[in-house]
Amino acid sequence: GINGFEVQKQNCCWLLVTHKTCVKDDVMPALRKATGDAILKFEPLILHVQCRELQDAQILHSVAIDSGFRNSGITVGKRGKTMLAIRSTHGLEVPLSHKGKLMVTEEYIDFLLQIANQKMEENKKRIERFYNCLQHALEKETVTNSYPKKKIKDKNNSSYTRKKKRNPEAAHDKCITEENDEDCENDDDPGISITIFPED
């Protein structure tokens, strides 16, 4: 803990926890306190949302995928509770010490921190993109719902399909800004998919 407190989780002691970019001078004093195995870990945003209806979860899922959170999914429980998990795949987990002994060089730790900090900045961009795209989607949904129901049916406004291949020329329902346009082009995206698992 940066402020002198330790966070306990699953029988582990967190030596350093921060939501900001980190430098070697922050990490090395924390590593010296380690008596067991120490791991450097970066975790991107994880957001769980309970949705009133499946359609709400589908809208959020589309926004999450378009914003770069490629590991997102929808879970429908036995009693119909619909949960959306917004997750990304750009995490980082690297062992640094074993039984209190540092197993890597300080230069390598500095290198890892640069990577982790880049991932942190990317995480912030994706969160901001998600927020902007969500606002856009909700505004669009409000406008769509203000039309009479007959017109909505005539437009064939199915908000979601099981698997939808993307057409780069016609990015249907996709929120593209100047900031994320280049990211979307470079993404190895197989398409939008939905995974529904029964709740344990």
From TrEMBL:
What's the protein here called?
Answer: tRNA wybutosine-synthesizing protein 3 homolog
Annotated Acidic residues bias = 178-190
Q: Does the keyword Transferase apply?
A: yes
Q: Which reaction does it catalyse?
A: 4-demethyl-7-[(3S)-3-amino-3-carboxypropyl]wyosine(37) in tRNA(Phe) + S-adenosyl-L-methionine = 7-[(3S)-3-amino-3-carboxypropyl]wyosine(37) in tRNA(Phe) + S-adenosyl-L-homocysteine + H(+)
Please list the residue ranges that the record marks as compositionally biased, kind Basic and acidic residues: 167-177
Give the species this sequence originates from: Mustela putorius furo (European domestic ferret)
Q: What class of enzyme is it?
A: transferase
tRNA wybutosine-synthesizing protein domain location, by residue?
Answer: 6-135
Q: Tell me the segments the record calls region Disordered.
A: 147-200
Q: Name one GO molecular function term.
A: methyltransferase activity
EC number(s) given by UniProt: 2.1.1.282
Indicate the family of this protein. Belongs to the TYW3 family.
> Which InterPro entries is this protein grouped with?
tRNA_yW-synthesising, tRNA_yW-synthesising-like_sf
